[in-house]
Structure prediction request, 1110 residues.
Amino acid sequence: MSEQRTGRDGTDLDAGPPPGRFGRKKQEIVVAAVMLLGFLYLRIRLVEHVRGRRGAAYLDPDFWPGLLLNAGIVLALVYLVLAVIRARRPDPDLPAVPRKPVADAALAEEEDHHHDVALSGNPVALALGFLLLFGYIWGMTRIGFVPSTLLFSAGFLAFVGERRWYVITGFPVVLLGLMLYVFTRLLVVPLPRGRGFFVELSTYFY
Amino acid sequence: MRIRSKALRSAAVMISIFALVACGTDGDNGEAAPETEEGGETEEGGETDGGSQADVLAAIDEIVAQVEAGELAYDPGSGEDEAIAALREAIPQPEGYPGRPIEILIGFGEGGGSDNYTRNVGRDAERILGQRIIYNNMPGASGEVALGHMFTQGTDGYTIASSITNQVINDALGIQPYSFVDDVAFIIRQQGPTEIYWVPTDSEFETFQDMLDYAAENPDQVRVSGSGIGSDDEFRLLALGKEIDSSFGFVPFDGVGGRISALLAGDIDVLHETAGTVMDLYEDGQIRPLAYGGDIVFEDIDPDIPSVADLGYPVPTGRWRGMVAPKEVPQEIIDYLHNVFYASAQLPAYKEYEVEFLQHVAGGYLNSADFEAESRRERDEIAALAEEFGYDTGQLQ
Amino acid sequence: MDFLTGIGSVLEPMHLLLLVGGVIIGLIFGTIPGLSGITAVALLVPFSYVLGAEAAIIMMIGVYVATSTAGSLAGSLFNMPGDVMGAATARDGYPLTLQGQAGRAISMDITASAVGGLIGTLLLVMIAPQFLRIALRFGPPEFFALAILGMTSVASLAMGSLVKALLAGTFGLLMATVGLDPVSGAVRFVFGVQPLQGGIDFIPAIIGFFAVAEIFHALYYGTGSGGYTKEDIKKVPRFALPSLADLKWTWKTMIRASLIGNFIGMLPGAGSTVAAFLGYGTEVQISKDKSKFGKGEIRGVVAPESANNAAAAGSMVPLLTLGIPGGAVTAIMLGVFILNGLRPGPLLFRDAPEIASSVFGALFMASVVVLITGLLLVRVLLRLLTIPFEIFSTMVLVFAVIGTFAIFNRPIDLWIMLVCGVLGFFAKQYEFPVSALVLGLVLGDIAEIGLVNGLNVTRGSWSVFFTRPFTTGTMGIAFVLLLLPVFFAIRRKRNAETDEPVSEQLI
Prediction:
């Protein structure tokens, strides 16, 4: 998976932000700002987020988190300042930072001919993948482990590009069978059973 | 074509891996798995109007006496024996319950005190119920994660929870979105507190009174460890400190390990800990008891040591364990479960466990109504203590 | 206790069979991304009734030792470690896999583990009583100092930018504060989600940070895993012995890390998790050329491996002598002892000496078995790298979900895993070292409880953190480890001029 690192570094460090896209350096500023704001918010509203007894021990329960948040604020500030400095520095003509990992990764990549080098990311695929997993977890407590796993693994297989129908239908069944065997017969894991009708269904399996 | 063979091969690899796992353990599993039975005959014994609770309990006691006398065959390894059959006959069963496995939520991890209690009382209960019990260990927040989960499950009596004193305390402190005492149906309490005040053998405190005298003159300097602020340990010490017009230096540790090594290393002076946990260190001569934490003197350990209640000090709470269900579960089912667990706890399998873990010394059985009343009393007493000590349970002013 | 008797007992055919079976189960569970060693150990609990105490414990030790190794194999192969220890190994193991040297990485993984386990066991047999005496003096202040020492490794985990490593570490420490505070009982950072009161356990977090994040990453960039072909695998010999050059280059590292790991493992409550990071961090800090670490330095694979296996041996000491488990796996083992009517503690050696010697014998033999089966399995394991992405990613996510759930049976852990997956994706994207985050998560409780209770046991005296011999010593080592790289850097600068701008190193 080295190619994307090169891709990323290539896009962001060597050539600068592609036109119309939010460049890496600007993204870093946003990340730093988000962290800073997050830490600041928690620090200011700390009292609301730490509810419990104060004055019982030598240190209150908000002492340690407070300390950490202070450290976080300082660090995030440093990060922000450095990110801003970096973004404002004009891009040199040469590849800016000939750092070792890039070189190593490039080396590794030469042996690696199986995949096309993907230069930019695909946020839609990421979001869909996230949603599928989200749905799996959300559904598991409602319809139980068996149906949710079948639906998810078939759906995810199709989503990542599997096109053979017998794999899409067969693999989830095999996978589920193994999981059920190992986790409910060998191990005694009380897998989620869902609610209502699904409880009956799940009880049939484990 | 190439991709396909890759896929098949990898699937084959995975399958063979799992087959290996399966082979490695399958042979043993047949014997280890609990006997499961079909719930077919459950309606049979459904004489729900068969006498009052007292009669049922008397009948159970009689059967247990017969088992102990060897008149009824009893074999915890079998599916059903004479003892279990007699108990099923004696315990009136609600219509159609239980028709499927019952899930018991345990708020602590495998191998801990709550887990041991639940699984041991469950061994014979499972046979009486004629249904599998699913033990669901869901550790976190001293049992509150499991309890919170119970409230999100059905109220049909198929999901119940094994609970501990901390639930009452957390209720008194008001840090949960629900109220334990008001929102659960109490089924049965089966274990009472067995905590003892321990000191290292070479401690300068010869008696409990020595310790109290020193603490009275040096507020905050006697370091006593227990399991976290807002635990039964802390409230016992708060009450004790109040009585001698002083206070203890309470040092909370979240694990038994930390507590014991801190005691042996001399970082704390007194350990407030259940008997079963540290019995080995006691027998090895590394620690000795100062006083029994509650109102019972454990003859089996050392009859010459007083209990805190004997010495005239208040004991607001102690670590008990019992079963609860959501409030909405029908009373009929609560009664039935009470009787099942009551019976199971009288049978030899559980009794042996109790002795092994030194739980028999404290008794602790309370029926549904007494369990509820006692929990209410504890909650009120703790809430009063918390108020008195300015225990800040919510936002800071 | 007789060590040789123990080995003899383990060599009985039945026991040996169980040990090998345990090792194989452990290797399999540990290597499958998304599953963890704890699951495998838990698997055996029900069988301990049938097997009897001695046999059950021998088998369980086989699993335990094997999973300490295998969690790192998953880390090296897929950057999807099954346990905290693997998170340290993945730092250098995964780059090696990317460079086409997966065979080298995992054969060294296995060798270093076995060496760590053997050294750890021998130390255990020879000087355990002395070590234990020191470990027992470890009160809360010492644990705080230890946590500080552990945190010095954060610097060694940086991927170019120190600020980002520190930010990640701080965030990890903050994550550890979520939930009901074990000391004060306060509810912290739960944002109204009741089940979060149980806190964030590191297993769901790690599965999210590594396995799930890795899949998200692959989805985003449209690249699959592995990229190894049949031909690549064929290049690896059937019995993949590590090269002599590698052994020569790393033997000092193995010994050093084993000593560190063994001692840390003995500390009740610290466990092998901290050991792996300390082993790694120390190695990085004392090495004269840090620049190779994190990019496939074989010593970076060896150090955490030796440390964590030596720690696994070390963690038997508090378990057997005091009945105190040092980590999640030993806690389950304690349960098995108790289920079989054995109570680990000072009386175990008197009442059941054969069990104690079996434990030591099994630890020793398990390391040997891991070495042999492990090296035999290298090619099979590498074959996992040829699984097509469609199948692989689906399996990993299902395993991740079930593996996360099976540990505590808590639905909330699945959500924690998902959130950590997203966080892990962004951390990777912006080059924050996730391992520093995990380190923070592991050390958070140790540090805070050590600090708060350190003040509690001394009734408010801050000086305790600097005046007790072990706190002074540990803090001193931490200080030296922090300064060493600076020292080396200065010396290097004198020798050869480097011209990287300061801001490049920081950000």
Notes: The radius of gyration of chain B is 24 Å. Confidence is low (pLDDT under 50) at residues 1-8, 10-50 of chain B. The first strand of chain B starts at residue 102 and ends at 106.
